[in-house]
Amino acid sequence: MRSVGVVVEYNPLHNGHAYHLQEARKITEADVVIAVMSGCFLQRGEPALLSKWERAKMALLAGVDVVVELPYAYSTQKAEVFAEGAIKVLSALGVDNINFGSEMGVIDPFYDLVSFMKMNKSSWDDQIKAEMDTGVSYPRAAMEAFKQLNQHESTLSLSQPNNILGYHYVKAISDLNVPMDASTTKRTVAQYHDISVTTQSIASATSIRKNLSQHEGLQSIHHVVPKTSYQILEEYVNDFGTYHTWELYFPYLQYEILRSTPAQLRSIYECEEGLEFRLIETIMQASTFQEWMTLLKTKRYTWTRLQRLATHILTNTTKKEMSEVTSNDLAYIRLLGMNETGQQYLNRVKKDLPCPLISRLAKAEGTMAKMDDRIAKIYSIPLVKNNQHSVLKRDYTMSPIMKKNNNKEDSRL
Amino acid sequence: MRSVGVVVEYNPLHNGHAYHLQEARKITEADVVIAVMSGCFLQRGEPALLSKWERAKMALLAGVDVVVELPYAYSTQKAEVFAEGAIKVLSALGVDNINFGSEMGVIDPFYDLVSFMKMNKSSWDDQIKAEMDTGVSYPRAAMEAFKQLNQHESTLSLSQPNNILGYHYVKAISDLNVPMDASTTKRTVAQYHDISVTTQSIASATSIRKNLSQHEGLQSIHHVVPKTSYQILEEYVNDFGTYHTWELYFPYLQYEILRSTPAQLRSIYECEEGLEFRLIETIMQASTFQEWMTLLKTKRYTWTRLQRLATHILTNTTKKEMSEVTSNDLAYIRLLGMNETGQQYLNRVKKDLPCPLISRLAKAEGTMAKMDDRIAKIYSIPLVKNNQHSVLKRDYTMSPIMKKNNNKEDSRL
């Protein structure tokens, strides 16, 4: 069975994602589509609007055959580490090909750039260091260094988020030396950062989230998400009364920063260069997460980097713990859902897996399992109401979704 | 000027307290009454219903001349440490006499018991150890040991909370070897633990708090608190919309326990003998603080002991920090309020103080100041609403209340 891997967040799954799935399958002539999906918190340091279970269901209903979780240790990370984690998971599952969206839709420039950057690594590093000494953020410095280095070449633009991720997927395949091809699908219409939903049927996830959070309501995004996604979005807000936004977690974050000593904050992953004092200084002046982020922002750190730090504080993710998890091999792969095709595929590759494929977190042990369990509980806190504290245990005991090919009913394994 | 010290919580100040103040002044023929009052959290491990400023005002309006704060390191502690802290503060202020409430209203049995227990310390300690080996709590073991030791003597009953505190005040005077007399006022009518407010004009603070928290409303306690206390209680709920109860803090406590590792919980003061695992196990099953406490309670630990542990978790008070503060001399005494008589007194004793008398926390440094500042911020969290986040800074910058003798207006220093 030919397989293609996709790296996704589906926050939420929209028509652009559905189109990408079709194209990925077509381009690679794959029999099976494997998605590795961020769990509770996302690459940009935000909670996912809906839990991983609802998003996995969206994926299965949009044509994905297997959904596995990208562990928190990789999901809430800069592009380089995020991509490395995703490639580790897909490669462990024996995936032949990765397909990602890009602006141009041509794969060669990604390979070319990876080779070029490897060859020029030391001059690039020197140039980044020089740029950072002027006080700018790492991504900005990397971009400037890249421009300097690349001024006589006509290569890939790294100013687009999707190109950056694509570059890092190809680089991780090369760095990890895994037997996987990369291919790319040209993105249509909406740009990653677009903030308004138009009348067209494809809109960016950013613009969709904006509409959902500003209570323009589900109705306003009806034409840009598959019907199945729409139903799941509707059910979630009916069941739990809310989507997960940073504002719901802000009181806890504020409490935590007021409660912590500078040394405790310093132990948190990505709390560097005295940021702990800035966190403490600004937290009492803000009433909302957005307000706080605006106070916290400096030239040195990107908004996304600071949101990731906020997530790590909220979830108590320390430097020590993160280093322990990411410097080791994958402890397990967590299955979130599959259909019959996916099940066939997993049965075939099962014997060659380098780590356990687990159906429930309750079956895993070790630092990564503890981390994912703790984080799922913290993610669920805003769902606790009317004495339904059992929601906190939901993720720990949940079994993967099993979607039958010939009817719409899904069940648990 | 003859001075008498009282150790108080005033949660809230009621007619029984007002009576005690009159009697204390009369019995000791004192010119000035000095109250050392718990700040944000109380001996039983509960938040004070109203902030220290409102309770200090109640005290001044009921006849206290100087109100100083009992630091958190002593206020939320078992009777022995609580009493030691209070005596340290009063003695630093040069107080001649301490007066406390007791069931019998006679001081000699307290002195006798302190001498008797000193003489029999080693047999008592042995007996306590033997009792604890049966699995009971320390207070229960101490009581049983006391009964064994004391069976042929007719002395003070240590089964009354006020007698226990009184015993520890007298013991601390002796242990610390400070030149202070002790005297006692016989308590009238209400017992410490009484839970219902009757038609009589004196009710226990426990019953008053119960009426306030169960929304039987202020009106139901009108006849058992001075008019001035009543007004302050009324204003507080008008200004802030709430009194401080454990339930308001429970979501933060629950979040914190879900967020923490066992090792982090173990570092918290009073988290002993594997209690961290019991905390984690029970916290997901409870929707309210009361429910959680019921799940947490064992034969080994008293309710009060566990409430104090909950407070230390909420406030991030570690074993290390607590030991640092309590093993050192008092770092400062914080003045909360005074009247002109109090000011005169303080002017006289000022030059002999063994530590600074501070008017604002912003003027203090060191571990105890950091602790009191952090705790005041956490205490204020439930008051934050409608963007009034400045309430978090209230305690740090607040100056003592200055009450003029001849008019009712009060001002800040």
TrEMBL record, chains A, B:
It catalyses: cytidine(34) in elongator tRNA(Met) + acetate + ATP = N(4)-acetylcytidine(34) in elongator tRNA(Met) + AMP + diphosphate. The keyword Metal-binding does not apply. It comes from the Bacteria. SUPFAM superfamilies: Nucleotidylyl transferase. It is found in: Cytoplasm. InterPro entries: Rossmann-like_a/b/a_fold (IPR014729), tRNA(Met)_cyd_acetate_ligase (IPR008513). Catalyzes the formation of N(4)-acetylcytidine (ac(4)C) at the wobble position of elongator tRNA(Met), using acetate and ATP as substrates. First activates an acetate ion to form acetyladenylate (Ac-AMP) and then transfers the acetyl group to tRNA to form ac(4)C34. The keyword Zinc-finger does not apply. The gene is tmcAL. It holds the Pfam family HIGH_NTase1. Its main location: cytoplasm. Keywords: ATP-binding, Cytoplasm, Ligase, Nucleotide-binding, RNA-binding, tRNA processing, tRNA-binding. Gene3D superfamilies: HUPs (3.40.50.620). Belongs to the TmcAL family. This is tRNA(Met) cytidine acetate ligase. ATP binds at residues 7-20, 101, 162, 187. It comes from Alkalihalophilus lindianensis. Its EC number is 6.3.4.-.
